[in-house]
Amino acid sequence: MRHGKKFNHLGRTASHRKAMLSNMAASLITHKRINTTLAKAKELKKYVEPLVTRSKTDSTHNRRMVFSYLQNKEAVTELFREVAVKVGDRPGGYTRIIKTGNRLGDNAEMAMIELVDFNEIYSNAKKEAKKNTRRSRAKVAAPAAAAPAAEVAPEAPEVAENTESNDAE
User: Fold this and answer.
1) What mean pLDDT value characterizes the chain?
2) What is the pLDDT of residues 132-155, one digit of tens each?
3) Please, which residues have CB within 8 angstroms of residue 151's CB and are 6 or more apart in sequence?
4) Quick one: three-class SS letters along the chain?
């Protein structure tokens, strides 16, 4: 029966669960992505997102509230300095969960949870891909035209003669 079951207990006592989520949240903030089971990732998302929302407004009260959850000074400092700056304009959804398959030992569903704005592949890949395709087309055409010019040596002096004649005029 699941009466009153609001969250996944993850097979742990309340104190163990609180310590585990605190450590995982500190690791996520420090390393920007971690690999864990899907159930833990889903619970960690619920745990971390309110903390990131609090970090948007840097006040002593918010720092103390976040520290009461994380219990890690370095993680709190990084959250308020680096993470809050990047997510300042985002209205929510600070983390992304990507399923990575099943674990070999016990076939548990594994997932990677990461902070959205810190993934260069998803955020910059689309912008760079468009630039790279344009550049690659230009580069493909340029070496073909440049190769015959490099083989024929007399073309270079002709360019120099043309510039001298332009100076004389």
Assistant:
1) 83
2) 555 555 555 555 555 555 555 555
3) none
4) CCCCCCCCCCCCCHHHHHHHHHHHHHHHHHHCEEEEEHHHHHHHHHHHHHHHHHHCCCCHHHHHHHHHHHCCHHHHHHHHHHHHHHCCCCCCCCEEEEEEEECCCCCCEEEEEEEHHHCHHHHHHHHHHHHHHHHHHHHHHHHHHHHHHHHCCCHHHHHHHHHHHHHHC
